[in-house]
Each structure stands twice: as structure tokens, then as C-alpha cells.
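Problem 3 from the worked examples.
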Amino acid sequence: MVLEYRMLMAALHDFEDALAAQTITQPEISGARARHLGRLQAEPAHAALGALATPLAWFATVGGTEADLVADVAALWTRGLALYDALGRFRLSLQAVLDQPGAPDPASLAELNDAGNALRLLAPQVQSLLADLDKIRTRVASHDHLPPHPRQEDRPIEDWNASDLLLARRTDALVRTLLSRAGTPRTEAFALGACAAYGAQASGSMYLGQVVGGPRRAHRIRDRLGRNAIGAWIAGARPDVPTFAALADLLEGAMPAGIDVEAATLLSEALAEVLPGGIPPVPLDAGTGFTRMIAHLRALAVIRTPAPPAPLSDALAATLFGDPAAPFTPTLEDQSALTQSGGTPGVAGSGGGVQILSAGDDGPTHQEEPDSTEVKCGAFWEALGLSLLFVLGGWFACVLRWAGGDRCPLWDDAGANWAAAFDNGVYVGGEVDTDWGSQMLTAGDAAALAQRPEVIQLAGDLFTAQSSLWEGFERAAEFLALHGVIYPDGFLGRHRYRQFTAIPRTEQGLWPRQAFDGPRFDLYPDTEVEEPAGLAPFVPGTPPSAILSGIGGGGQLSAPAISVPLWADAVAAIDPVVNLDLDADRGWRHECWQTGGSIADQPVDAQILGYDDV
């Protein structure tokens, strides 16, 4: 289970609790337990870092593309949030002026001028935002951030990267080596975190493989979708799990200059001890992995849907909708889900212009194909971009004409056909200079504007525009979640994510499914069974909590049920037995293995590796 922060942090907490609850009679082991519990409590950042060794290795190796992508998404998101906030500020300041009879008070007028100037400065960025958004959409949908697994490509073990090796080769041996080599409080905490993660990887990957339909190597995109859905579920069920920002704060607070040298050295030396020379071909650069992982956590914290727009004031709503014979009709071509469903922005009972409809996502036979989301997302943002250009351009180019009692050709042209009025983002009417400077309204100007029907219309259009922009963030967030870039926080009620939070009915002998890399990764794979069939142990309906507590709370399939015995054996120097495949690649508690031929052979020639074999 690569890159699952929340599961690993929950497992770390539960490992500590389970270790404390163990009945231990041997004094030397009891003493080691007391010391190790003290390390976990005194060095929480290093324990967390140890639990995150797999994400660390991911970003140090194949995760660079994902790190760059998510950083670029967060930067674009930040620019969009700035526009959204500026639009909302301007809308409310205009509304406040319109709500005052006669000339506005000085404070309201000053706020309108300041808000208008701030928005004017952002308006030219609309086109570049749309262009950058289009590029991001293409990058996300390409799934380049989810590279193929080396086992699925039949690559020899000498060509595997450290990230995949950590899950598939000498896994038990690595944890034991970390525990035996750790000689300081911080490195002991790091090793204990890695021990806690061992159980989480084994149990969590099996759960994930069962809801996905097969292992990560065979279903890389669907696996990421399921992994993020499980992470979102855990975030809702476990308030003790830190947020992305809090986790980054914890790690950076203890390691402000980058990864702790002792921890990085311990991991490097342990890998060198358990793996032969030249494997992995490129040594693990833990420093790079740490830097990218922190940046990834920070970016995930940024990519969030803002609060919905503030509602229309009672006075403005009454003006816009008070006459049933002439209700407000947006000038803009509103393409929001609300309008598509028959609702009207600003009308009570229709959602106020800010709701997202999960149309067609009530089951696998109705949900949209993932490819269609990119097309629809693009069309939505193109329309929204043009509408923003219209609103912003119409206001700033026409405001002084309206204040003087004149009509404005730009507004008239755009009102008749706004898409034609702004060709490729540039007003083509030619009668109004859109290269305006900073304009300050006087109290008299504002009082005159309050009487103009165009300004009242504009106030309603601003609400529609901000509502559509809010919905755009929601649509963008689900697009990113669907393609495995962010977690589907807030979307778990939709089938495409909900399906991963309960074990489906899996008949004996029908798991795992052969590789599927087609466009419908959101559906359970209909490929043939990869023979010989593996063991899928979780019973139908089991929620993700079983990863941590076991079925029914019994613990038999839980992460601590694997990690704590490993800890006890390591402390007591009991001879090791097996290295578990932490990708659950061939079923529950399957040992590390290699293929005798090609991974495409049926049946797969799965050869169990001896404890010391690589």
C-alpha cells in the first residue's frame, strides 16, 4: 500500500496501544517494551518517519513525477482561490453599496473601490489560468504519476526501484535489522514506526486488493483510487489521525533542515545489509524523498474546496426576484449542475446557486466514464472563464459610463452574445477601451450606479459567477480524486469511492483478477482470474476498520496482530520465519515470491523465496 499517510499514522497509534496492552512475563522483554514505549512518546516525529518509509522511498524514486504534478496543481489552485476570494469580496462590497439608500457611507465606498481594484488586477490572469488548467487536466488524465510496476513488466529484480523492493523483498528482515541497528532514541523510534507500518502494509494491502479486485501491480489506477478512498474513510473515522498539514508540521518541526541524518543512515545501512550489492540499482536518496514528501503533504493541504459564496442580501434578493412576472435571468450562460437540473441561482429552495449534483453516480451502471470527466470539466471551465471575462470586463469598462447615465456598448454586445463579444478572451466590439486604469468611484457615482438596471443585473451575475466558480472547484476536486491525485474527502457517498469501503462478495477461486489498464478503472475488473487463485480472507461487507482492529474487533487480520508479534520476536531474538509480501500480491499473508516465467503466464509460476533469498 504505497503512499497511504492516514492508514500508516492510524496503524502507528494502534501499534503503540497494542504494545502497551501486551501481557509480558519475561523481564528483559518487559524492559525493552517500557523503553520502546518511551521512545514512541518522546520521539513522535521519528516514529512517524519510520512508519512513512514506503512513501519516503516512493518520492525518492518513481514519485518525482507525482510530486511535481501535485505541486503544480496546488500552485494553480492557489491562484484560483485568490480569484475566487477577490470576486467574493467585490461582490459583497457592491452588494453593501446597493443595499444603502442614497449615497453610501465612506467605509462602504472605500471597500468597493479597494475590492474592485484588487479584482481588476487579477482579471488579466483568467486566460492564463484557463491555459494552465487545460495543461494540468491533460497531465492528470495521462496517469504518468502512476508508473507501471516492475513485476508487471517482467523486469529482473536488479532493475527494481527501492520503493517496490521495500514491499516485496526481505520485508521482515528489514524491520528486524532496523530494530537491531537502532542505537539512539530517535533511530529506535524510527525502527518502531517501520515495525508498525509492516502490519499496516500487509493487512491494508490485502483489504485494498480485495476491494480493487487484484493487486497494485495489475490494477495501478484503480488501486490508487481505492487507496485514497480508504484513506478518506479513515480520516472521517479516526480524529486522532493528523491532517496533512499537521503531519508535515510534525516532521518539519523535528527536522527543519531536512531528514534526520541518523534515520537516513539507519535506513540506508539496513537496506544494504538485507539486499545484495547493486539492488536497488540506484541507492535510496532519503533526503530527496523527505523533501518531496513534505511538499506533497503541503500541497494536499492546499487543494481544498473553499466555503460556498455568501448568500444574496435580503434586499438584493427581493429586487432581483420580487417581481414574478420578470424574474432574474442570468446574463451568463450558466453551465452549473444547478442550472442543468432546472434550478435558478439565487432562488430559495433551488440551492442558492451552489450545489453539486451527483448525477448518474448511484451505481456502477450509471456513473460516468472517467474519460468523460475530462471533457466535461474542460467545457465547464471554458464557459466559466468566458463568463468571468464578461463580468469583469463589463464592469470595469462600463462603470463610469453607467455612472454618467450612458449606455455601454461592451455590456450590450456581451449581453446579446457574450461568447462572441469576447473572442479568445479579447473584447472585439472595438467601441470601448478595455485597457482601463485604476478608477475610483465617488459617492455620487455609487449613488447613480445603484439606480441602473445593468448594475442590479451585474450584482446577480456576480453571484452566479462566484457560485459557478465554487462549483468549478468541486468539479476539479473530484476530477483530481477520480484520477488518484488527491483524496476523495467529501465524495465518499458516491459509488465510485464508496465501493472501496466495504468488501464485495468474492466467490472462492475468483480472486485476483488479471491485469486491466483500460478506461473503466472505476469499475470492478471483469478480466479472467489470475491462476492459481489466491486467498481473499475479508468477509463481504467488512469496512476498512478491519485493517486496524480485525474482523469484528477480534484482531486476527489486524495490523497490530502482525506488527506486535514481529516486535516481540525481534526483541527476544527468535529466529525469523517468513518475509511477508507487503503488496498482498498473491493473497493474505503470502510470502515474498518471484515468477518462474512471465507474469503473463497462466497459471503464474509463483515461487516462494527463502528467508534470505532476493
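Problem 4, a separate protein:
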Amino acid sequence: MAERDSTADPAVRLRVAGWLRTLSPLHVGAAGQDPNAPLAVAVDGRERLYVPGSSLAGALRSMMHNDPAAGDGPRDEAANRRWGWAQEKGPGGTVSRIVVRDALVATGPGLDSDGLPAAPLDPARLEMRTSVGIDRRHGTAAQGFLFTRTVIPQGALLRLELDLHTHARSAEQDRAYLSRLLMLLADGQLRLGGAVTRGLGRTRLAAEHTHVHEEHFGSPQGLFAALRGDGARTSVEQWAQTHAPTATTSPRRQVAVQVRWRPAAPVMVRSGTDGLTVDTLPLTTAVQDDAVTLVLPGTALKGALRSRAEHIERTARGTDAPAADTSGTGNDAERGAAFRAQLDQLPAVRALFGSAPRRRGDDGRGRGALIVDDCHAEVTIPAGLWDQAHQPGADRRPPGAAGTTPPDGEGASALERLRGHGLERADHVAIDRWTGGAAEGLLYSVLEPHGLSWQPITLTLDLGRLATTATAADAAGADAALALLLLVLRDLKAGRLPLGGATNRGMGDVTVEQILLTFPEDEPGHRSEPVELDSLLRGEHAPHLTRAWCAYLDGTTV
């Protein structure tokens, strides 16, 4: 057999160098931590925050090849040609032609003399997010389902360095493939790390700081140019115009939901950090280097929506949530198993909101089809002022301040200045049932938001994933799961679903002004135009969804 002439098809390397900007907090976990400590983010050997290349490569592959069953089903040949594959329990496989380097986390796009980020993110700027599972029988925290994770704040930059190795014969196809990847990144389609369906991990390509260039190894001149780093750099926009992507992968079929609302009572989620003057403060997140804003995290919003979906389906079925063993012999493991059984009981809810796999290769389990993003308040608060609210003496004016100082002036106390941002201290006390007086040690204060305006709540329903998970989950159809989501949104608009914390103590009531749904272009009767929820529920497609929902509950076919 004749030896192949390598010069007939010289090697080409397509290189991308730039940045990804986080649009929401990001968590990529580290191993080997204390199980009782908050879940830590990954750091490299020099204690710098980073995203491992393996995590970034997996997210990029999933973004480009969006078959949700690709990991458990037949090999995805389109993905394997570039990203490689390994035969399970066998010698087969190929190496990836795409090399993704570790992504250091930085505050700015500058590079040092070694080509590394010049301004690494200070670990002191990490935020904390706490999540808790709520027992469906008792409304209290489920046993073993309270945990805290540290997250990288939004606005941070991730260094993106990616190489695609190809040959002259197939270079044009790979250029188009890379163009599509960059367009999806620029469109904000990459979700990275943990809890991506609960508000974390949204990123977008910083196209103004990203470029592409080619290296050709078919001649000595090309080799020396690659070693010197010579060659023209092409902007992302120009690259996409020159190398138009081919239709190798179908676009994600998604329904975008936007909920425009305003609070009818204080709406907040409690911060995991207590103050020294005010006991309970609302959760905030950094939106700039020197400013924060109140946030309803996607974890809390998704939990409220899931709880309502379970309430609807359990009511329709006449099914109670299973309870843990309360005979006194049940241990923590049994109570935790009872909570998992509550989450596993309803197939349509699992398809929408997800479920943990019980064993390797569980079909229809894993990440849900519904993504719920963080919701931010419109107000921004100076970071220094917010730090003062946590300190002792936040209710006292600085020494020497005049008594006529305006409440929002420089001589005002931190709490007085926060009133200008819509935050007011409220004191609460528990009453002793015997004496009728204040109970010992049960006086506490809350910094409540009043009169704030909030950004819309945004949801994204992945119809492709829904079709796969809903069909695999006890034959629950995708239309039935979509009908359940519409019922949840109907209850939200009707004011039956409070949001945030302390909803049984006068907080969390909301007034929904409008819910807009945007379906894909190929969805019959929608034409990719936003439709209001009430119009959709009265539209021509509603009877079909009603039949699908009833058939799902009855166990029949539509």
C-alpha cells in the first residue's frame, strides 16, 4: 500500500483568542472540599479562579450538537468528527481536533507579557448562593438538601483560547463550523457550569475583544509565521461574513417567555449573610465593580414554579406527596429518599424541571427543559453603602453630622441613605402566648424593599429536550408538559403564586401585567411573533393542548 503524501493535504490551524463575558453568576466546582463547607469554585495551582478546559469543551460541544440523548444513545458522528470520542470499555476512539485551553477569570481584557490575563479576579469578590429543597408535605427544609455554593459574579471575563486543527482539503467546512460556533457564542447561547437551568452560567462572547487567525503548515514560511505569531487577525464579525456557516446543525427550538410584573408587597430572597444592625437583608448581586442590585435568583423562581406545577398535577390526579417515616425509626437517609420520591412522582413535572438520575443511562432523567434566569431589580446601590448596611451602627449618623442633614445626604446614616433606594427597615416580634408580651429573644428586623421596579422574569423552554424527556418519562407527551407550564403561568398571572421568601407573612405578592410567549418560526400558527398568554389560551391551539393534558392524566392517547 502506497504511503500517503502529507504535502498534498497540508495542515491548517484555526485559532480563536478572546473573551467570554458572564451575564449571570457562574459556578464551576472544585473537588476535594469539606462536605460541610460551601461548594467552592475551581482554582488552578496558583490559586487563580479559572474554568477547566474540559468543562468549557463539553459545554461548547453540547451547544453545537444539541441532541439531549447524545451521551446515552448512538454516537453522534457529526460531533465526533471534530470533538473526538472514546469507546466505552474498548480501545476504539479518536482524539479531538478542537483544543480548548483553561479559561482564567479576569476583570479586564488586558494581557501581560506572557499572554495571560493581567487582571485576575480577586477571590474576595466571589458571591454566595444558598439552595434548599422544600418538603412537599411539611413545607420545611428537606433533610439533607440545604447547600451553599460560591459563584463568580456577573460581568467577569473568561479567557477563551480555542484551536481547530484541520487540513487544506476540509478547511472550508471547518471555517464554516467555527463561524457558527462564534455566532452562537455572540448570541449568548453558551451556558456554562452548574445550575444552568436555575439562572447560573450565562455567557456571551466579547466580540470586540476576540479575533480569529489561521496558521498554515504546508511551507517553511508558514511554519516560521506560526512560530513568530505573525499573520492577520480577523474580527469575529468579518470572519462570520466571509465564512457563512452551513446548515450542519439545526437551531434550537425554544419558547421564550417574558413575564412583566410589579410587586404588590415587599418581594425579596433572604441573603445568607446576616447584618449586625439589621438582622435580615435581601440577597444582592454585583452588576458593576462598584454597585449591586437586589436579585430573585433563578433557584428561588424555579422552585416556586415547580411547587405550583406539582400542586396543579397532584390536585388533578388526587395524589398526595409521599411522606417520610415519622414513626421514630426513620433515619436521615430515609427522609432524604422520601423527598426524592416526591420529586420523582410526576412525569410532566420531571420533564419540565428535571430529575436526578438514579443510575447510569437513565432515559428521560437529568436536566429539565425549562430554564429560569435570575431577575434583577432596576435600582442599583453603591457597593460601599451596601457594605455599611451589614456593619454595626448602620442606623447611626457619622460623628459631627448636623441634625438638619437631609436623609439621603452624606451625613445621613446608612439606613437613611438606603431609603432613597427603596429599602426600609421593619421590626418584627413574636408574641408570648401566655403573657401577651414580646417573646424573649424573638425580636428581629428586616430590610424590606418597597416600591422597587423589577426587570421582567425570563424563562426559556427547550422544545427539543422536552420532546425527548417527556416521551421517555412514563409516556408523558411534550404537549401535556407544555400545557402544564401554561397552567402555571396562568396561576402566576392570576396572583395565586407569590414569589421570594416569607410568603406566609405578608410578603411575595406580585401583580403580573403581561406574559408574552415567543414560539419558534416553524411552530404552526405562531410565526415567531410574541403572543400574550390570554390570547394563547383562547387560541386555536388551546383545545389540542387541553386534550393532550387530559389524555396524559387519564393514561390514554390523544
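Solution to problem 4. Residues 298-317 form the longest helix (20 residues). Confidence is low (pLDDT under 50) at residues 1-6, 69-73.
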